[in-house]
Write a structure and sequence with these properties.
Elements (H helix, E strand, L loop, with lengths): L1 H38 L1 H12 E6 L6 E2 L5 E13 L1 H6 L10 H12 L3 H10 L6 E7 L1 H8 L6 E10 L7 H4 L11 H5 L1 H5 L3 E7 L5 E9 L7 E2 L4 H18 L3 E8 L5 E7 L18 H4 L9 H11 L7 E3 L4 E4 L2 E4 L6 E3 H7 L2 H10 L4 H8 L26 H8 L8 H12 L3 E2 L14 E2 L3 H17 L13 E11 L2 E15 L6 E8 L8 H19 L8 H12 L9
Parallel strand pairs: 2-8
Antiparallel strand pairs: 1-6, 2-3, 3-4, 3-5, 6-7, 9-10, 9-19, 11-14, 12-13, 15-16, 17-18, 18-19
Length: 587
């Protein structure tokens, strides 16, 4: 009897134990469920979203770069980029007997893309643990549609923008270019990359394990396009200057060249061109040297183009007038072992003849008669030795040496443009101030509706007198090739020996011409620099002045600037321009 009762007792406890364990397991499971669904809900949702929810960036259209008349210099065109999810592809079931599997998908993709199967398979295998891989970037829509029509697992497309430069090599040094990720690399594209980029948008969506989009999540954040930038460049003048500069480099077999045109009233850069150049739309054969914006970066000694400013300093000192006479006899000056020479002994000359003959001796004697800092102060006020400040990457500062005590030879060299260095843009800035009645306004690469406030650096009367003297250089001196039918032109030539590893190279030159027009009331200032012309012609009056004439004539007529030469002199000037001329050694 006890045995039966004991068996029943044990059976009841076993049943209670099973029920108890079941209850405990239920409580644990319910507690865990409560913890996961309530306490740890945010963490689990986040982990689930990481695995299933995707956030896609919507690219913003990069802002356009325009010239002053609204002509496009840089625009963005929509393209498609083909991407793949290698991890999803390698997860798919493989059954070679029915032609299903990653290898078969890769084969189909290779055929439609027109690439080698082995290469593509190697690319997928190298990225098999990744969920993102570029296949082909920035291709036309029809090509993208053909690839997507193959419906390869894990392959999709996304929208991108590709930069296009309508002016090509003509404006490449000004505009610059972007890389494949639409980031600025050179020029305006680099300097103002943040403003041009804009703000990307964003969309979220849910994907299944195969990478297919199930549905969108939340509201789409729309992209904000980048800002458009309107430059001061006039594309018509840019084309004209580029064509003539390239022709001159070819004709004279020069190493490089640059030219700048400024509006003397507003300080706007209307044209800035360089040789050699490059095509930003096709950079497959690009060389580093072609990237240089030489008008802004390259430095050179300006030579005789600085003599007008030496005369300006003399007139401002009160020691000289426009009628003053300088005795340049015997045609040379000695400073120890250093000798300054003119092409001939010009004797007693006035300032106008000093510029016409480009007398180094005359400029030196004038500078040495002034306070030792007079010429230096003049150059400094014109912006020599200081950055122009247009915001370009790598802009050169230039060199304007300063000494506690000047040696006479140093003062003399500075007076005729040696011992200092400038960029083409800096020299153009100095001539712009002289042309603007001595009033220097800031140089800018952006279109100006209202001219910026400037500074009077040369008295208006002095600036006007010096411009008249420079007009004589074009009429009767080394700058005759700069003449323009119907217009009065003022300017100065320069021919500078290049500096080599052992000093000045006497068979290598830089040819310069700096001028303004119309001389009666200057509107434009232009500087042409041709580096190392290798033909028989190498003087500034032979190489650079003709470029100035052709470009400035086109610029004046394009901008509808009325001729200022009296009618009776126009025919005489046309005949004079055709005559051969001799150029002085100094210019």
């Amino acid at each position: 009897m006890k045995t039966l009762e004991s068996s029943q007792y044990i059976g009841k406890w076993r049943l209670r134990f099973v029920y108890g364990m079941a209850l405990i397991l239920f409580v644990v499971a319910a507690g865990r469920l409560f913890y996961l669904t309530v306490v740890d809900k945010a963490f689990l949702q986040n982990q689930g979203e990481i695995r299933a929810v995707r956030t896609e960036s919507i690219p913003a259209t990069r802002g356009m770069i325009l010239d002053r008349r609204g002509e496009p210099l840089a625009v963005s065109t929509p393209t498609w980029t083909i991407i793949a999810n290698p991890k999803a592809l390698w997860r798919m079931p493989s059954d070679p007997t029915v032609g299903v599997g990653p290898e078969q998908e890769i084969k189909r993709l290779a055929e439609v893309m027109g690439v080698g199967r082995a290469w593509l398979q190697e690319k997928f295998e190298a990225n098999k643990n990744r969920s993102f891989m570029y296949l082909r970037r920035q291709i036309p829509p029809q090509e993208a549609d053909a690839i997507m029509a193959a419906k390869v697992l894990g392959v999709s497309k996304m929208k991108e923008y590709k930069r296009f430069y309508p002016a090509g090599e003509v404006a490449s040094h000004v505009v610059g270019f972007t890389n494949i990720d639409d980031k600025g690399q050179e020029g305006i594209e680099l300097a103002y990359d943040a403003a041009l980029q804009g703000q990307p948008g964003e969309r979220r969506y849910l994907k299944d394990l195969s990478g297919n989009i199930i549905h969108g999540i939340g509201d789409e954040i729309h992209e904000r396009p980048g800002e458009n930038i309107e430059l001061s460049i006039d594309l018509r003048l840019q084309y004209l200057a580029y064509r003539e500069l390239k022709a001159a480099v070819t004709e004279h077999r020069a190493t490089s060249a640059s030219a700048v045109i400024l509006d003397v009233k507003t300080g706007e850069i209307l044209a800035m061109v360089n040789q050699p150049s490059y095509n930003p739309n096709d950079r497959s054969a690009l060389e580093y040297e072609e990237l240089r914006n030489r008008a802004v970066i390259d430095l050179f000694e300006p030579g005789s183009t600085m003599k007008p400013f030496t005369i300006s300093a003399a007139l401002m000192s009160g020691q000289y007038s426009t009628e003053s006479i300088i005795d340049t006899s015997p045609g040379y000056m000695r400073f120890g072992r250093f000798t300054i020479r003119d092409a001939a002994n010009y004797g007693a000359i006035d300032f106008e003849k000093l510029l016409i003959k480009s007398s180094n001796v005359g400029a030196s004697k004038v500078a040495l008669s002034l306070s030792q800092d007079a010429v230096w102060n003049m150059d400094y006020e014109l912006g020599i030795g200081s950055p122009v400040g247009i915001g370009f990457p790598g802009e050169a500062t230039g060199v304007l040496p300063s000494h506690p005590k000047w040696h006479p030879a140093e003062v003399a060299a500075l007076s005729y443009g040696y011992g200092l260095s400038v960029s083409t843009l800096q020299l153009a800035q100095a001539y712009m101030a002289l042309a603007n009645h001595g009033y220097r306004v800031p140089v800018t690469i952006f279109k100006q509706d209202i001219p910026a406030e400037g500074k009077q650096v040369i008295p208006s009367q002095v600036a006007g007198d010096v411009v008249k003297m420079m007009e004589a250089v074009v009429q009767r001196g080394s700058g005759k090739a700069a003449q323009i039918p119907g217009y009065r032109v003022a300017g100065k030539t320069g021919t500078v020996h290049k500096v080599g590893s052992k000093g000045y190279e006497y068979d290598q030159y830089i040819a310069l011409f700096a001028g303004v027009a119309p001389a009666s009331n200057p509107r434009l200032a232009m500087v042409v620099m041709v580096n190392d012309p290798k033909g028989r012609e190498y003087y500034g009056g032979e190489v650079a002045a003709p470029v100035f004439s052709r470009v400035m004539e086109g610029a004046l007529t394009t901008l509808n600037i009325y001729p200022d030469m009296p009618e009776g002199l126009r025919e005489v000037r046309l005949q004079t321009k055709k005559l051969p001329y001799q150029v002085a050694q100094g210019g």
